[in-house]
Amino acid sequence: MPQLNPGPWFLIMVLSWLIFLFILQPKSLSFMSSNSPSNKTNPTFQSSPWLWPWT
């Protein structure tokens, strides 16, 4: 069964992971994110208590 022979496919897998780790990943991580976090505070809402008619 040829799929059990790891000879040619193991080298292809190792080389593809090395290319990903050392070439593609640093290039993709170097892009700036378009939505940078801000120090905006959430507004606080003043709520009044509910006035129940039967109390």
Write the layout of secondary structure elements.
Layout: H1 7-29
Subcellular location: Mitochondrion membrane
Membrane topology: Single-pass membrane protein
GO molecular function: proton transmembrane transporter activity
Describe this protein with a few key phrases.
single chain; 55 residues; mainly alpha; 1 helix; 42% helix
Verbal overview:
With 55 residues, this protein is mainly α. Helix content is 42%, strand content 0%. The protein is built from 1 helix and no strands. It has one helix spanning 7-29. The longest helix is centred in the N-terminal third of the chain and has 23 residues, at 7-29. It is elongated, with a radius of gyration of 29 Å. The N and C termini lie far apart (82 Å). The chain crosses the membrane at residues 6-24. It comes from Nothoprocta ornata. One of its GO terms (biological process) is proton motive force-driven ATP synthesis. It is a single-pass membrane protein. This is ATP synthase complex subunit 8.
